[in-house]
Amino acid sequence: MWVYDPTSLRFLAVNDAALALYGYTREQLAKMTVLDIRPTYERRRMQLAVTARSDIERAGRWVHLKANGETFEVQTYGRAIRFRGVDAILAMVQDRTEFNEAQRKVDEAQNILNAIIENMPNGVFVKDIAADGAYVIFNAVSGANDGKDPADVLGRRDIDIFPSDVANVFLASDQVARSSGEAYVYEAPHRIVDGSERIIKITKKMLDLGDDQQPRFLLGVSEDVTEARMFERRLEKLALEDSLTGLANRAAFMDHLNKAMKGGGVVALAFLDVDNFKDINDTGGHSAGDALLRQLAARLTAALPDTLVARLGGDEFALVARLADASQVDAFGEKVQAVFAAPFALEIGEEFLSCSLGVALAPHHADTEEELLRLADIALYAAKEAGRATFRIYSPIMSAAAQRRRQMTMELREAIARDELVLHYQPLFRLADGGLSGFEALVRWRHPRFGLIGPGHFIDLAESTGLIAPLGDWVLRHACATASAWPADLSVAVNLSARQLQGMSNPESVEHALAESGLAPHRLDLEITESVFVGDTQHSLALFKALKALGVKISIDDFGTGYSSLAYLRDFPFDTIKLDRSFIADLDNNKGSLSIARAVVAIASGFGATTVAEGIETESQAAALKELGYDLGQGFHLGRPLPLEAAEALISLHQSAPVPAQRRTRRKG
């Protein structure tokens, strides 16, 4: 504080605080005017203020000058007084340096907060409940989500901005958040300015500012989840739909059968196999087989609109129909057979085909799903035994088929003991450089009467009769023993069936195969299909983790054809994802398959998994998959399954002089 003469502007009195603040002595100030403590550019303003008495009885901001030449901002307040009998002015001065610095930090923090709010990928808004819900914050993303200009929203209420039905929804959700005190999350469709409808996920919560007062402000965060929900729906569809035909897959079929049997009435379950389907694949390749399956799916759904038609895999179909009574079953079978009356148009020409159909009825033949499935399977075998191109309704006298299965079961058991099994090896190549990466071991049965039999003719039998465990152990031991003699950079893949895994309580058989052969664990790749997740998922995941502890690799085979779910990819870190051949077959002309193929690469890269494309049959497919970033490729275009001697010759060829994959294929003939 000081007192100065308004005429001479000289200091008349100065307190100790002023001396400390400005750094002058009392003697120095006695010889100075109030202009001397101001920089030159402020002096004219000071003179005018004194003359006009504009700084009296009001606060003003000034820049003052300290004794050391430093300038600083102050706030002053002047009052006219009588001092020692003369008119004078009392000035009270407050140093604003710390206040200004604090204000600068507040402004900086506010600017950062504003920048964060405006640059967040989500919408952020705040309503003042005390002001009837008027918006005090509404960032640009909120504006984009709601199709509004933020400038037009601030200070206004929902009822002022949106149609009444939309505003009422917003207000109702506000009330839920206010009354619960917890975060309230909901999703709602929003139609924006261009007319498109988006799905917005909104989270609302009252802000507790810690001032011991009733919460006043409602915070909202909005997120456009349209693409995410569409992707989830596609995944859900994939989980219940066969990717090749669009029919229900095994998971959807089992769910429908369960509901149908619980619903009561007569339920017909039919298993359908295309007769001589293998001939189509052998003569026209998998593309011809796939085209046939798609046409058949379309015919079945058109002819049987009230029947669930599912593809279980390969050329195996299942049908679930509700009949008025059991007498309709013959008409049902004839209707299915009629689907094959017209030829199928394939690239290799028109093909007349037939099917074998086995039908069982609930509750006439069975009252449980398991039993009905078993009896329909027996009826299917009876149809095949009858010469195919026919259908059979289950009957207890179908002993011939059961006897044959028992005979073949006995022969298969003896084949394992007599070493009648043999492995062929299909090569896997690196798509980036054409180098040989390893082989997949594929079992064959060298039958003493029927010659070399492919796995499609006996694996199902092995699974249904409990022989899959010794058969699987045989394959595992021989594959590991063979691969142990290969160069150390080559791996061997062995398939583990779902039934085999269900009967495996621990990884002991794998551990023994590795120890017996001396094969390094990381060179063994165990391939499983998605069907293992239909059932006891916890058992499967626990077993996979135990296998991983041995150091082996775990691959998910035929990805996209079974019970596809991102959940099991989240719960278990698979080393390899093998995209099913059905996506490869129409990669060139199906944008959906291309999108899924690209998505699998993205998913795999997220947890460092290797990607394998199986069923490559053309150069264009190989080039496209290489461009998409797939690591490995497998298929007839690159190399067919080879006997051991031919596989070892291929290894020698690659060890001595690597050549492009296409040349390798031609040399193998």
Would you mind describing this structure in some detail?
This protein is of the alpha+beta class and 669 residues long. The chain contains 25 helices and 26 strands. Strand 16, helix 13 (369-385) and strand 17 form a beta-alpha-beta unit. Helix 16 (468-483) packs parallel to helix 18. The longest helix has 27 residues, at 277-303.
Note the main sheet. 8 strands, mixed, barrel
Which shape, going by the Cα principal axes? elongated
Task: Give the amount of beta strand, in percent.
Answer: 25-35%
| Strand arrangement in the largest pleated sheet | 18-19-21-22-23-24-25-26
* Structural class based on helices, strands and sheet pairing: alpha+beta
Number of helices: 25
- What would you call the quaternary organization? single chain
Q: Termini, distance in Å?
A: 106 Å
Fraction in helix: 40-55%
